[in-house]
Write a structure and sequence with these properties.
The chain has 351 residues and is of the alpha/beta class. It has two domains: 84 residues, no CATH class; 202 residues, 3-Layer(aba) Sandwich (Rossmann fold), CATH 3.40.50.150. It is 30% helix and 23% strand. It contains twelve helices and 15 strands. The strands form four sheets. The protein has a seven-stranded mixed sheet with strand order 10-9-8-11-12-15-14, with helices on both faces. It has a four-stranded antiparallel sheet with strand order 4-5-6-13, with no helix packed on it. Strand 1 and strand 2 form a beta hairpin. Helix 3 packs across helix 4 and helix 10 packs across helix 12. The longest helix is centred in the middle third of the chain and has 13 residues. It is globular and about 55 Å long.
Length: 351
């Protein structure tokens, strides 16, 4: 790897001029974070397609609980090297319907999910039916969560803050948490939303102070997912809502593309969840699972095909010549088969 690269560590950005001066990547071997087992079966090997550093990384499966891990993985001291300043999550949030249709989306959320202001009149309910047709695809509804009064929401790993801004516009009192201090500071300056720096547990966040906690594509990045979920649960009031979204290692896309699957992201993704292993991460005595959804993502499928084609798998060049309807169909079929690219889980804190 040559040229200039900037990496965001745990709070600060670092720039180095060439591969010759890139700090050596240190790796550590860890037990399974879900069951503490040290026995793993090898699944595949891959490299970091984003930075090109660190050599080859290994995806393994825990023999005891079946959770898949990147193991060995970068140490905390080396991890920042794999999050460059232009890392996509630092530039934008998860999907948005756009300002043009935000009023209709809000109306649907008021009619179907209890968002304020209430009540919704007859004409509004009729328009909301139109909205359900407009936002018929699951990926268009990724950000839709039930409203929990009085509406205090924490978004963990908020990145550039797009979800925070949307939820504030829809009536939530929002707070962010982001481990990269530079990114958190920019969000605060641009939006005026309070964004704490760090990870969970966090000393400045009070127990039972939120009605909802969200984690969009975050849990796969953390060192100890069970500890993170338990810390998030303590921040919820009884009856509060926890929403977690992660890539699905049991997706059709992973089976098709292997190391080139866009959701794999070695070595940034420490854990690689299935619906079963994600559910096992939640403490059953503290959380009640309400629903588990799978969401087909045509953009991820297409990006995976592009990576595979770029790596020399020529059969996917024909895929890339296909139109939008082909990718929509691929995403829909993955949902029907319960093998979609993304898992989203809703859980409620027990009283």
């Amino acid at each position: 790897m040559t040229g200039t690269m900037t990496a965001v560590g745990w709070g600060t950005a670092r720039t180095f001029e060439s591969a010759a001066v890139v700090p050596e990547v240190s790796l550590e071997t860890v037990p399974c974070p879900n069951c503490n087992s040290h026995e793993f079966d090898p699944i595949l090997e891959g490299q970091d397609s984003l930075t090109g550093i660190g050599g080859t990384f290994h995806l393994v499966r825990c023999v005891e609980c079946q959770l898949m891990l990147t193991n060995p993985r970068p140490t905390p001291e080396s991890l920042g090297l794999f999050y460059p300043e232009d890392y996509p999550n630092y530039q934008s949030g998860i999907g948005s319907s756009g300002q043009r249709w935000q009023w209709l989306e809000h109306l649907v959320l008021r009619s179907r999910f209890g968002y304020l202001p209430q009540p919704v009149g007859l004409f509004g309910k009729m328009l909301a039916q139109l909205g359900m047709w407009k936002f018929h695809a699951r990926h268009q509804r990724r950000e839709w969560i039930p409203f929990r009064a009085p509406g205090r929401l924490l978004d963990v790993g908020c990145g550039a803050g797009a979800f925070l801004e949307r939820m504030r516009a829809f009536g939530w009192a929002v707070t962010g948490l982001e481990f990269a201090a530079d990114v958190a500071r920019r969000v605060e300056q641009r939006t005026g939303i309070s964004v704490h720096t760090g990870t969970l547990p966090h000393p400045d966040l009070e127990p039972e102070s939120f009605d909802a906690v969200t984690m969009w594509q975050v849990l796969e990045h953390v060192q100890n997912p069970r500890q993170t979920v338990e810390a998030a649960t303590k921040l919820l009031r009884p009856g509060g809502l926890l929403v977690i979204e992660v890539p699905n290692i049991e997706s059709r896309s992973f089976a098709e593309f292997g190391e080139h699957w866009r959701g794999l992201e070695l070595p940034r993704h420490f854990q690689h969840f299935s619906p079963k292993t994600l559910s096992a991460t939640l403490p059953e005595d503290q959380l009640r699972i309400i629903e588990i959804q799978q969401i087909g993502m045509r953009t991820l499928i297409k990006q995976s095909a592009q990576r595979a084609a770029d790596a020399g798998r020529s059969q996917y060049r024909a895929w890339l010549a296909r139109g939008k309807s082909f990718w929509v169909e691929q995403a829909l079929q993955s949902e029907i088969a319960n093998q979609a690219d993304v898992i989203r889980i809703f859980a409620e804190r027990r009283s």
